[in-house]
Each structure stands twice: as C-alpha cells, then as structure tokens.
Design a protein that fits this description.
Blueprint lengths: L7 E2 L3 H6 L3 E5 L2 E6 L4 H10 L1 E5 L4 E7 L4 H11 L12 E7 L5 E9 L4 E5 L4 H11 L3 E5 L2 E7 L3 H6 L13 E6 L2 E6 L8 E7 L3 H9 L4 E4 L1 H10 L41 H9 L4 E7 L11 E3 L5 E10 L6 E8 H6 L5 E3 L7 E5 L11
Parallel strand pairs: 1-3, 4-14
Antiparallel strand pairs: 2-3, 4-10, 5-8, 5-9, 6-7, 7-8, 10-13, 11-12, 12-13, 15-18, 15-20, 16-17, 16-19, 17-18, 19-20
Helix pairs in contact: 2-7
C-alpha cells in the first residue's frame, strides 16, 4: 500500500478536494479518481458535452540539442525513436514509443515538433525511467522538465468552450499544436486527448492552473472528470494503456500500433531500422507475432476484468484480457485482450469464453474501436 504522505500532489489538488473528488494513488501521485456525480455520469458528460481532466501527473519534457543544431536534434531522436524528422511538420504532434532491444514498448509518447525544440509527454509512471533512458540514448540532447500543469478538455463542446477564451483554438485540427492565451495565461495546446472525443490537451503555467481550470469549469457544458472515467473512455475508444495493454514485453506490431512507424523506417525505406528493437519489430511485419491485441465484447451481464483467461471451444487457453469494463455508452462488457493469432485468423463468428470465477461468459471478437472516435480532421 502507498502511504498517502509519500504521494506527490498536482497543482490543482486543492480544487479537486473543493469539488468533492475521491482521491487515490496513481503512479505515485494523489489524483482525483471520481467526483460526486460518479463515474458513469462523468463518462457520459464527456461523450455528450465536455469534461475537464487533470493529467498533470504526466511528464512534460522540452528537448533541445546541446550544440543548438536542428540536425543534431533530428539525428539523435531518430536514433532513439522510430520516427522520420524530415517528414514531421513544425507544429504537428506525433505518437511514438521508446522501445527496448527486444522491440518491447518501454513507454508510448506524444511529441510535438516546434521551431527549435521538441516537446514530449511521457506517461506518469514512466517519467523518470524515460528521462534516464533518453539521456542514455541521446547524449547530444538536453532534456528539461516543463513546470506546468496539464489539462485535457474533451468532448463535442470542447472547441466552442476553448475558442471562447482564444479563437485560435478553433482553427486547430487533430494533432496540431498552438500557443494560446487562456484567461491571461500563456498556454500551449494540442488538439488531442485519450478519450476518442474531439478535444485538447493544454499545458498551463503552474501558477495559472487554478484560474484557467476555474474559467473552463464556469462554462455550463463542462464538468470535472476523474481518472476512472478517463479509463472507461479510452477503453471504449480502443486505446491501449501502458502497463495494462502494452509494456516492455509487447511490441508495436502485436499491439496494433505499427501505424506510428513511417514507411521510411521500415525495411526498404530510406532510413530503415536504426532504432532500438528494430530487428525484431521489422521482422514482425513479415512474420507476425504469436499473439495480437484484439477487441472483445460480451452480451452476458458479467463484468470481465484484466487477467481473465480466454478459452476456445475445446477449453484450450488462447488468450488473456488486459483491460475490461462495462461500457457506460454500450451497457455491455468490452475488453482488450491478447489472443493467439491463429485463433483470431480462424475463429470466424465463433465466440470464446472468459474465465470469471465459476462463470464462463461468451465473448466475441469485434473491430476496434467499440465507440467511434470523433476527432476533428
């Protein structure tokens, strides 16, 4: 058990408590898990109007070259990550990952290229690990933590709400970034998030975080949302969570995340390989891994959680659930799971069975996402 005294607090800690949040330990931080409205209400609030999430536990890094050269920055990052700097427009956000030598995902990241530096957002539980790994892989670069809160405004009303504070927000499309002035504070926003809804992630100077959050919450379409609903929202959108669905033992190909590797870094490309784990990852494009991440849905009223074993019709173990919930939008259990590739290729419409104590609810392989994404493209 984590001692509450040892937990780090985010800049909006006092506001969360004022709003009646149920706080809990997450990745070493004391975070709002849910508010008095409850998880389902918060989830639907985000789907129908807009929700404000505090994700300040995530690590925000500024990356520059020691010699000030953009070429040095490009070469070093291309050696550490499977990206192509030359194909990356200024002001554009990208999804990528730090891989180990076996091709496993040490962490998945969001990066933005700017005129003379790159901003990186790392997962909360991996932030110190990522920094150490980056510094080892990229000695020619300087990595600095950004002193700022991180807020996510998500949902169909997010554009109208944020554009009321700075009209420039409306011009952004999915994965674009811009500097915004919000309630007098210089902020940095990307049109992104981890809910499947349209929305923004906003880096706010720590001293201004509460003022900006209160201004956003003053809009009647916006409600405070905890990490509980963030998890159910991302799962409905089919988005994997590091530590659950992806990790050091899973590769991008197995996890269905190979879209983030540009063709130029694949076999036959102009910049093929050259990143950690490249040999394994590139081989898997031709020789797929034994298990792959899949979406599952059940019509039985039995919640199916992570680590539930999956059985085929003959009773053989063919997979394991990595994330599971009862979808507040669909009102049925949905899951992400690693399933034997041969089973996925031959199963057709035949259901599998999940082992849930003494029950064996039927589960069906289904395309992802469970709920359509609504990004502004």
């Amino acid at each position: 058990m984590t001692n509450p005294v040892d937990l780090r607090r985010v800049p909006l800690d006092a506001l969360h408590r004022e709003l009646g949040a149920k706080m809990g330990a997450f990745a070493g931080f004391d975070m709002p898990i849910q508010y008095p409205a409850g998880l389902k209400s918060e989830h639907l609030q985000t789907r129908e109007r807009a929700g404000l999430f505090d994700v300040s536990h995530m690590g925000q890094l500024k990356v520059t070259a020691r010699d000030g050269s953009l070429a040095t920055l490009a070469r070093a990052l291309e050696a550490a990550l499977p990206l192509d700097f030359d194909l990356w427009p200024v002001g554009q956000q990208k999804y990528s990952y730090l891989l180990n030598e076996q091709g496993g995902i040490e962490d998945d990241l969001m990066l933005v290229r700017l005129d003379d530096h790159v901003r990186i957002i790392a997962n909360a539980g991996n932030r110190d690990h990522d920094l150490a790994l980056f510094e080892r892989l990229c000695p020619a670069l300087v990595f600095e933590w950004i002193d700022a809160a991180l807020l996510a405004l998500q949902g169909p009303a997010a554009e109208r709400v944020l554009a009321a504070l700075d009209p420039k927000a409306a011009a952004l499309t999915f994965m674009q970034a811009a500097a915004l002035d919000l309630a007098g504070a210089p902020c940095f926003a990307t049109r992104s998030g981890y809910t499947g809804e349209d929305g923004y992630e906003i880096s706010v100077p720590t001293a201004a975080a509460e003022a900006v959050a209160r201004r956003l919450l003053a809009d009647p379409n916006v409600g405070p949302i905890g990490l509980g609903a963030r998890d159910t929202l991302r799962l409905e959108a089919g988005l994997p969570l590091h530590g659950n669905d992806i990790g050091p033992a899973t590769t991008p190909v197995a996890a269905g995340l190979s879209f983030a590797i540009p063709k130029s870094r694949r076999t036959g490309g102009a910049k093929a390989g050259g990143f950690p784990g490249a040999a394994t990852v590139l081989r898997q494009f031709a020789e797929p891994p034994l298990r792959k991440l899949a979406g599952l849905v059940s019509y039985d009223p039995v919640p199916i959680r992570a680590h539930a074993v999956l059985l085929d019709g003959a009773g053989h173990t063919v997979g394991e659930v990595t994330s599971g919930t009862v979808s507040p939008t669909l009102n049925r259990p949905v899951m992400l799971a690693y399933v034997d590739r041969v089973t996925l290729e031959s199963i057709g419409t035949t259901p599998l069975a999940a082992v849930v104590r003494d029950k064996r609810p039927a589960v069906h392989v289904t395309p992802l996402p469970f709920v359509p994404k609504r990004y502004k493209r």
